[in-house]
Amino acid sequence: MTCDRILSCGQDIHLPCKVMLRRSLVIKCFIVFAVAFGIRQATVALLNDTPYESGTGLLTSFGIAMITLLLIRFEGSGFREHGFLIPKRARRLLTVSLFLAFLYILVVLFVPGGISGFEALPPASISWGLLFSAVSVLLAVFAAETVFRGYIQTDLDKAFGSYVSMVVVSVMFSFYMVPITLYFTASLKELVYLSLPLFAESVFLCFFFKDTKTLLSPIAFAATVILLEMLTPLQPTSVEYTTLISLICYAVLVPIMQAFMAEVKEQNMKFEVVEEVDSEEPMDDDV
Amino acid sequence: MSPAVKRPNWCGPLNTRTLSLLILAAFFSVFIVLGPVVSANPDAGGQDARFTKVSYQSKILTNTKDVWTFTIYNANCSENGPNASRFFLIFYVDNELWLNEYNDTQYMTWSCGNGSTVSRNYQIREWQTVRPAAHDLRVELYWNRNGAAYLEDTTSFSIDVMVHIPLQHIYATGYFAAYLIACIVLFSYDYVLGLEE
Q: How do strand B86-93 and strand A234-236 relate by DSSP bridges?
């Protein structure tokens, strides 16, 4: 039995072996993060912060996703383990993800907008550019979720447990998402204001991934939120409370999502019990 | 006994063939999409003088001032005589002539020496609009050579003019209602799916 297998089984193992495995997992995760961070930030700096509107942005997301997928492939660990599976209740998971995304946009956009008013932009016209942006968003979200939830969270979870991995992944995610140009131009306060909602979003997505065991749900949620933000030609006039409202919203979305998932799990259990009863019926007849 | 049908295992892990196909498909789609993006940058004129930088606000609130700054580099527009290296701009908004700097300012032009760079500021007093609007702007750089105009370069950009509205405005209420209905529909659909199971 290899050390990897022992660690994933959660058995008591020899301490030096455990420390060694933890260290190797941490190093691997940080290398993957450094590569993804470097590629994304180089692209953002070159493209002047418009990663969803250019071919290079699309290519970057594609590259990041492919590197991570190939890494998983060459490591020999299963794709299922990293969240690449379509569960039985995929339709329900998608519906819940979309519902939570719409709920988030309703709160984060219309609560501050209701207080301070909106700045209305012209509506987005249906064009090839819009389709390109939508594809770009989907690919960017897929790449980010593959790296952070699919790879890093899964590996750190083995080494340190759920909550530590969620915090570490969320800190990394915030660094990844904030454009590098802002590190040199924005003040510390502005950076904190920008990073906090990203951190909260990542924590929520980590909970979502942990509860559903599939990347489908965080990808659907994150992509829908970005697409709705892009397609809604409204923005609150005052953005003072947007950060706070976003944090509160994510804090509330976690228990709502868990309530939905608990119901789905309950349904699954009922379903399994019914199946077992059905399979026992012929036996009774035989008796 | 029904015949066994071999079904593709979509839920299973990715195998090498699927992964290779995925890579090929993604590369193919990227190059298809990149095609129009790369070619959508038409140049105009002789390029002896050109725009090197254009500064503008892509989103501007109605009834507020706006300033556009054009930086022009004169690479090779020179001529002997007093009228050498004189330039002017022509502005088009949504493909309609908006300002001809030469005709509208009593044939005034500005100079930019050969091999040098000039920055020109144009202040827009305000954008007046009742509803949000998107404008496509095209600016042409002309070299005025002894009374004859030669198109040297063209630059295009888009501006979104925003309007301040309250939540009660139909524009905001419409989106609010649409998202609320979407939430209700999704919640109901999830409930129905739960009942079906």
A: unpaired
